Input
Amino acid sequence: MKRRTVLLAGAAAAVVRPGRAQGRQLRVFVSSQHRPDVMRRAFDRFEQANPGVAVRIETGGNTSEVQAQYLNTVLSAKDPSIDIFLIDVIRPAQFAGANWVRPMDDAVGDRAKFLADYLPAYAEANMVDGHLVALPAFADAMFLYYRKDLLEKHGKPVPTTWDELAATAKAVLAAEANPQLQGLSFQGRAIEGAVCTFLLPYWSQGKELVRDGKLTMDKPAALNSFKLWRSFVDSGVAKRNAAEVATDDTRQEFQAGNVLFAVLWSYGWAQFQGPGSAVVGKVGVARLPAVSGGQSVSCIGGWQWGVSAYSASPAEATRLVRFMSSPDIARMLAVEGSLMPVFPALYQDKEVLAAAPWFADALPVMASAKSRPVTPRYNEVSDTIRTAFNAVVGGSLAPDAAVAEIEPRLRRVLR
Output
């Protein structure tokens, strides 16, 4: 059956299936990057199992920020035109705080038993003030990508600590004598990814930034994190303008063969294996390094299914969200869309591994991943951290001054 696309308010697009019999209609908002073609096939399955319910997809926004802006507009107006939406893992507390989502507690029965099947970080991210406010859709996390050909050439193991990474990078850069080659690429620009970059070594020291909505920042750990990232620039392991590097800059530079180590999300893998890539067959993926004496920790990304508080069909919408957050659909999204599962068991599933063999190496990373602070005021938390981090990496703010600056700001936000 053919599909057509129409434009709706907010520059969103709707994938519609003409000829569908009249009945209850659910409208679902997803990013145009979230494989709406694969989502459509999943919704087809739901329609077949639920006669009289039709699912319409609206797509829009290629970034978390743009998607959130559109949903903020719709939901602030209490507009019932969207029943279900995908939200970034950082958004559940914000949406719950604004009363924009319907709690899912009654829909899942024994909540503890229900959530036990998911990766712990996603169960945690969707619990707000004792309520389950959204259901996990698919996962993501930061990984250490590395040039396995260059490590093999120079007899170097995959580093397990940041100090080892720095030493390995310096040795390989000196031996290669290639002015285009960077030792490490990471996101230093004042974007959401910079929050995760800051938190990686902070968490690795066993510290939490926020607990139960209150600031628990450990100043020495924060100082160590700022110093670590700045040291990569000062030592030449990272390039001088690392403060200008955004997420896809890292991906493009690594894909062009100009980076030894890269801190990047899971989407990079498929790009590195694709046509035109200079690193096909040369890429390894591993856990992120730890600080010396600490544990390896990654930062989770990923997306969650939420039901609008203003949906005119809450029962059907909740049923669809339960369906889309099931192991069967997670397997389908992994096999057909390379979207990482939120169920640990699927990282050993034969069908999934046949389609995406690297997922077998991803589970340890996902199992150790942590979620960014859960708070309705996350936007302010994010802005405080990423602005300071960018200034430190760029050299306009000293690490100790950054700690002194962000601590009182975060305390005011989270008081």
Observations:
- The CA atoms of residues 218 and 330 lie 37 Å apart.
- The longest strand covers residues 135-147.
- The chain has a mean pLDDT of 90.
- The chain is about 45% helix and 15% strand.
